[in-house]
Amino acid sequence: MGTGPEGMRLRLRVRGQVQGVGFRPFVHGLAARLGLTGWVLNDADGVLLEAQGPGLDALPELLTNGAPPLARIDAVEVTALEPVAEEGGFAIRASDASGRAATMIGPDATVCPDCLAELFDHGDRRHLYPFLNCTHCGPRFTITRRLPYDRPQTSMAAFPMCGACAREYHDPADRRFHAQPTACPDCGPRLSHPIPDVLAAIRAGRIVAVKGLGGFHLACDAFSAGAVDRLRRVKQRNGKPFALMVANAASARRFVELGEAERLTLEDRARPILLLRRHPAGEGANGAEADRLAPGIAPDLGWLGIMLPYTPIHHLLFHEAAGRPAGTGWLEQPQDLALVMTSANPGGEPLAIDDAEAERRLAGIADLIVGHDREILVRADDSVLRLVAGAPAFLRRGRGHVPVPIRLPRAVPPLLAVGGHLKTTVCVTRGAEAFLSQHIGDLDNPATVGFLEETVEHLLRVLEVEPAAVAHDLHPDFQSTRYAAGLGRPLVPVQHHHAHVAAVLAEHGVEGDAVGLALDGFGLGADGGSWGGELLLAEAGGGFQRLGHLATLAQPGGDVAARQPWRMAAAALVALGRGGEVVPRFAAFGPAEGVRRMVERGIGAPPTSSCGRLFDAACGLLGVRPVAGFEGEAPMVLESLVRSPAVMDGGWSVREEGGARVLDPLPLLGRLADMEAQAGADLFHGTLAAALVDWAMPVLEGRGLGSVALSGGCLMNAVLAEGLAAGFAARGVRALLPRLAPANDGGLALGQAWVAATLPGA
Amino acid sequence: MVHGSGGKAMAQLVAELFAAAFANPLLDQRNDQAAFDVPAGRMVVTTDGFVVSPLFFPGGDIGSLAVHGTVNDVAMAGAVPLHLTAGFILEEGFPLAELARVVTSMAEAAREAGVAIVTGDTKVVERGKGDGVFITTTGIGMVPPGVAPSGDRARPGDAILVSGTMGDHGVAIMSTRENLGFETGVLSDSAALHGLVAAMVAAVPDVHALRDPTRGGLATTLNEISHQSGVGMALREADIPVRGEVAAACELLGLDPLYVANEGKLIAICAAEDADALLTAMRAHPRGQDAAVIGRVVEDRHRFVQMETRFGGTRIVDWLSGEQLPRIC
Ligand SMILES: [Fe+3]
Ligand SMILES: [Mg+2]
Ligand SMILES: [Zn+2]
Ligand SMILES: [Zn+2]
Question: What's the gap in Å between A134 CA and the centre of ligand 3?
Answer without folding.
Answer: 4
